[in-house]
TrEMBL record:
Sequence ranges assigned to domain Fe2OG dioxygenase in this UniProt record: 237-337
Domain of life according to the entry: Eukaryota
Pfam families assigned to the protein according to its UniProt record, in alphabetical order: 2OG-FeII_Oxy, DIOX_N
GO molecular function terms attached to this record: L-ascorbic acid binding; metal ion binding; oxidoreductase activity
Keyword Zinc: no
Protein name stated in the entry: Fe2OG dioxygenase domain-containing protein
Family: Belongs to the iron/ascorbate-dependent oxidoreductase family.
Organism, scientific name: Populus tomentosa (Chinese white poplar)
């Protein structure tokens, strides 16, 4: 067989370079097109099957029927409900005991009498839903987050670093992440302008949730027999993010997850849901669906809380399931340390008989690891365990 030369085939060095450049540009455009794609657009496109990158491996799929909003948990078998701030002073010890039990057994609890106006809870859900449902896609994309920077502020669908995404199934979720505290991070011009009160509502909600988080850290400290300020002192100034998540209806909910199994990175998360069920907490080797409670706030302990309490209180492993009929919305407010803060078990909770269970970690390093490896349950915090 006679092989044609490169010149005869038209493949000069210049031609090869042009071809390589064209391929690079084509692949770059494909990546950009995919990065701009949002789950809501897929859902509203009347697709019959979900794209392969959203299909969970069999062991991660929810083992339930198409109607994933049907909840088969009794009230006795669900996250505790605690009146946190409406108690008389002489009941404080009782409330701390209830909080301690919930933190140890669940890593989560609902709170009532939290001090946040009911109207504000409805407003934050309302403006979030309006952004996703009523704002044109071209206007939403003006607030798109940086796809190459993990946890960047803005409108997006993917939160991991690019190197983690090749081995991680994508969540069936769109979101808008707001950097709200400290005030030096707060830039309302980067938040949606639609509806007209969006920015005002988010700022007000941020301030109210900070107060709730501070009070809760005090009660959690007392529940461990620590000084009221102990955990807050260990955390330092709150770095707060508010993430409004929108989970569109899914044509194949039995194959997907709205949010894969994980525990939160920071200290404490305060979450509200709409009326559509979907949040699940892993307890006693099974997934339990959390009943939506429209005017309570769900408290979720995160990984740094587990480290500070030396494992006495566990961060809650949780996920979100999807359904085929109704979109769902939630608002999660994360309270984290600064990335320069070093977190370790509280000195008061360690002794010769109860040595530290976790290595000290700089929070920024922990965040970097989480976004690089992906959540995968609780494997990030388990990597800090000291082998005694």
């Amino acid at each position: 067989m006679i092989h044609a030369s490169s010149t005869e085939c038209g493949e000069t060095s210049e031609g090869k370079e042009l071809g390589l450049n064209w391929n690079k540009e084509r692949k770059k455009k494909e990546r950009m097109d995919f990065q701009m794609m949002r789950v809501q657009s897929l859902s509203e496109g009347d697709i019959a099957e979900v794209p392969a990158q959203y299909i969970q491996p069999p062991e991660e799929r929810p083992p339930i029927s198409d109607d994933l909003t049907v909840i088969d948990n009794s009230d006795e078998d669900n996250v505790p409900m605690i009146d946190v701030f409406g108690f008389a002073s002489e009941q404080r010890d009782t409330v701390c005991k209830l909080i301690g039990d919930a933190c140890a057994q669940w890593g989560a609890f609902h709170i009532t009498n939290h001090g946040v106006p009911v109207e504000l809870l409805d407003q934050i859900r309302g403006v979030g839903l309006s952004f996703f449902k009523d704002c044109p896609v071209k206007d939403k994309l003006k607030y798109a987050c940086d796809p190459n920077s993990p946890a960047s502020q803005g409108y997006g669908s993917k939160m991991l670093r690019p190197e983690a995404e090749t081995s991680t199934v994508l969540d069936w979720r769109d979101y808008f992440d707001h950097h709200t505290l400290p005030l030096s991070r707060r830039d309302p011009s980067r938040w949606p302008h639609f509806p007209s009160n969006y920015r005002q509502v988010v700022a007000h909600y941020s301030d109210e949730l900070k107060l709730v988080a501070q009070k809760l850290l005090g009660l959690i400290s007392e529940s461990l027999g620590l000084p009221t300020s102990c955990i807050e002192d260990a955390v330092g100034e709150f770095y707060q993010n508010i993430t409004i998540s929108y989970y569109p209806a899914c044509p194949q909910p039995h194959l997907t997850l709205g949010l894969q199994s994980h525990s939160d990175m920071g200290v404490i998360t305060l979450l509200i849901q709409d009326h559509v069920g979907g949040l699940q907490i892993f307890k006693d080797s099974r997934w339990i669906t959390v009943h939506p409670q429209s005017h309570s706030i769900l408290v979720i302990l995160a990984d740094q809380m587990e480290i500070i309490t030396n494992g006495k209180y566990r961060s809650a492993q949780h996920r979100a399931i999807t359904n085929s009929s109704s979109p769902r919305l939630s608002v999660a407010t994360f309270h984290d340390p600064a990335k320069t803060v070093k977190i370790s078990p509280a000195f008061e909770l360690t002794s010769n008989s109860s040595p530290p269970k976790y290595h000290e970690v700089k929070y920024g390093d922990y965040v970097s690891s989480w976004y690089t490896k992906g959540p995968k349950g609780k494997r990030n915090i388990d990597a800090l365990l000291i082998n005694c």
